[in-house]
Specification:
Length: 682
């Protein structure tokens, strides 16, 4: 159809329509049908779109839902700025929010609504791994971070969720991990690492606060294997040995015609190489030192005695009785240096006056003292009690094994009483007096049930009384023959013996508990018989230095060789096990947090508490610097690291301090340890 326009005479426009036929055109009916189809299709699409929108956004639009959720998150941020503790108190609950009278956000109720929308806020704890990364569940709790979850829900829509992590960014920390700064500091700072008062050990190890440790007493002990520390040896066999602690000298009475002297300190450093040697003409079975005159005495066969100058190490005088007088095994010298008693074989006990030049004069030189002692018996050792005019001797005679000799008359020695023993007694050492004031001795004997005995001289009853004993053979691989004993003065004795087995061995015993109090309880701390072999040893091959803490061991052979040696053996200085103080306390220095509007948040404590121990920490807060009306809170746990919130009644104070109270474990063998105390505040 074509549209034509004409103008007529009357001035109006007249329209005419003319039909045209064309294959590309539409009829009116076709147009109407097309419009109807389009309407149907369009309405379907519109339904799908609007229906989808309704299903997702429901009663509100997307922007409204997002703004509603964001408001909740921003409100929680505002609450965080005002009080982190308030955040802590509401962890784990479904929360709503509202503004108080001062237009400050606070948690209120369990939800909020906007039309048909509902908003719920939850706070949850946060954990971090060792690298500080946030983890889900695993790791250690971070008390200064919280997870905020805001959920908006409504009928017919999916939940709209916002998550965020909030930290207490303005948090401050008062942390102490080191108490090495010392005591007496009233005010705390990060630098001083100090404290106000303490009865614990705040300086032993930096970073560890422990109870005070009380070390055990030092003891000088033999090593497990004597050979390990035999610092030096001498290819000379020792018959008798003496140590002069006052002058740091060792005298060796040797299995040779020479006597030897050494400096002990030099032996420790350089061995036996540097020596003084003196020809005396006989083997020296016995020796003695005069504490007044500078004399060293050596005794040998045929009753020979040489007086040697300790100044020049030269012979001053020689003395000898008639032939057949026996061999000298020991000397006891009077305190004033003017008299000596020499003992030896054939039951010999000689009384000799001493002159300043070393001359010896016999005043009673007889065999068979006590008078009934068999002259075939040896007197092996001797000790003199000047104050009581009493001479104590031990011998091979079973009836007169231990005797007390009255020496009030130097020319007429008599026996007071004796003590019988089935086996040869080889040495005697005085160790003090008992509770009654009676002399107490260590006696050793060959073999027998108790080769080591402690015996008292009961003067009131005129008898000797055995108060303790130790069976040394029970500690060895064969029959024991003790030959020398030393009392160290440290409640212990050292015994040198040899063992009669296929491969004989020297054995060293350390025996503790030889106190001079009530009847002692002995214990054998060390029995070493794996080091030195020997065929026999004489009296008295060992000398012990109380000052140098060691011993000269003479008459020993290594690996059963034919050559015999002497050796110096050190003892090791070892502290016996100590204990921790039963309890102790430390009061920290005072911390000024600046004002009373600070918020105390939580305390984190790192510690180690063994079973049976205890640590209690008390935090105090006060507006008064002197803590006159302080509020306190106790923190106690056996967990290695724990965090606890600070109570609300501790808030609003300016001054803080803490006290650590520790209790040792049940046996006092261990201690609790505090590694760090940390207070979080803002």
């Amino acid at each position: 159809m074509k549209f034509l326009k004409y103008k007529n005479q009357a001035g109006f426009t007249q329209h005419h329509f003319k039909k045209f036929k064309s294959g590309a055109g539409f009829s009116l009916i076709e147009l109407i049908v097309a419009i109807a189809i389009f309407a149907i299709l369009a309405s379907g699409v519109l339904y799908v779109v609007t229906s989808s929108y309704t299903n997702f956004y429901g009663v509100g639009d997307k922007q409204s839902i997002a703004e509603f959720a964001q408001e909740g998150l921003e409100a929680v941020r505002s609450i965080r700025e005002n009080s982190w503790q308030y955040m802590e108190d509401n962890v784990g609950s479904n929360l709503g929010i509202a503004k108080d009278a001062n237009e400050i956000w606070e948690f209120s109720g369990s939800e909020n609504t906007l039309g048909d929308l509902t908003r719920v806020i939850t706070l949850s704890v946060v954990s971090r791994d060792t690298d500080g990364n946030i983890t889900e569940g695993a790791g250690a709790e971070d008390p200064l971070t919280k997870k905020v979850t805001v959920t908006v829900s409504g009928s017919g829509i999916s939940d709209y969720v916002l998550n965020s992590y909030l930290t207490s960014w303005s948090n401050r920390v008062w942390e102490q991990t080191d108490w090495s700064g010392g005591v007496g500091t009233e005010f705390w700072s990060y630098e001083n690492k100090a404290y106000t008062t303490s009865s614990v050990d705040g300086t032993s190890v930096i970073g560890d606060l422990t109870l005070a440790y009380i070390p055990g007493s030092l003891a000088w002990l033999w090593p497990d294997d004597v050979a390990d520390i035999a610092s030096t040896t001498l290819a000379v066999y020792s018959f008798s040995a003496l140590i002069d602690d006052d002058n740091d000298q060792f005298y060796l009475g040797a299995y040779s015609s020479n006597a030897y002297r050494y400096d002990i300190t030099d032996i420790r450093t350089n061995g036996f190489g540097s020596q003084s040697s003196l020809a005396v003409g006989f083997y020296q079975y016995g020796s003695g030192l005069n504490s007044v005159y500078p004399h060293y005495y050596v005794g040998g066969t045929e009753g020979q005695i040489k007086t040697v100058s300790t100044s020049t190490f030269a012979v001053l005088q020689s003395y000898s009785t008639t032939k057949g007088a026996g061999t000298i095994y020991g000397f006891a010298i009077q305190d004033d240096g003017t008299h000596m008693y020499a003992v030896g074989s054939l039951g010999s006990v000689w009384s000799l006056a001493i002159a300043a030049d070393g001359t010896l004069t016999c005043q009673n030189c007889k065999s068979g003292i006590p008078q009934s002692m068999a002259k075939t018996s040896n007197v092996n050792a001797v000790w003199l009690d000047d104050s009581e005019d009493a001479l104590y001797i031990v011998s091979d005679d079973s009836t007169y094994a231990l005797s007390r000799i009255d020496v009030s008359s130097k020319t007429a020695l008599t026996t007071d009483y004796s003590y019988a023993n089935s086996y040869d007694m080889t040495d005697i050492k005085y160790i003090g007096t008992n509770g009654d004031g009676d002399n107490r001795f260590i006696i050793i004997s060959d073999t027998g049930a108790d080769e080591f005995q402690i015996i008292d001289d009961d003067i009131s009853e005129s008898e000797f009384v055995k108060v303790a004993g130790a069976d040394l053979s029970a500690e060895s691989t064969g029959t024991i023959y003790p030959k020398d004993v030393a009392y160290t003065g440290n409640d212990e004795a050292i015994v040198m013996a040899y063992v009669s087995v296929i491969a004989p061995r020297i054995t060293m015993f350390t025996i503790s508990g030889v106190t001079t109090g009530a009847s002692p309880s002995l214990s054998i701390d060390l029995a070493d018989h794996e080091t030195y072999g020997t065929y026999s040893i004489y009296y008295h091959p060992m000398a012990y230095s109380a000052k140098q803490y060691g011993a000269i061991l003479g008459g020993i052979t290594f690996d059963d060789s034919a050559t015999r040696f002497s050796a110096f053996v050190d003892q090791e200085e070892i502290a016996s096990p100590g204990v921790y103080a039963a309890s102790g306390s430390l009061v920290s220095s005072k911390l000024d947090i600046g004002s009373t509007d600070q918020e105390l948040h939580s305390v984190t404590i790192s510690q180690d508490i063994p079973s049976g121990c205890d640590i209690d920490i008390t935090l105090e807060a006060d507006d008064d610097i002197n803590f006159g009306s302080a509020t306190s809170q106790a923190f106690s746990s056996t967990t290695s690291v724990f965090t606890e919130e600070v109570n609300t009644d501790m808030q609003g104070e300016r001054w803080l301090r803490y006290t650590v109270d520790m209790d040792a474990c049940d046996s006092n063998a261990d201690t609790p340890t505090l590694y760090s105390f940390k207070l979080n505040y803002r």
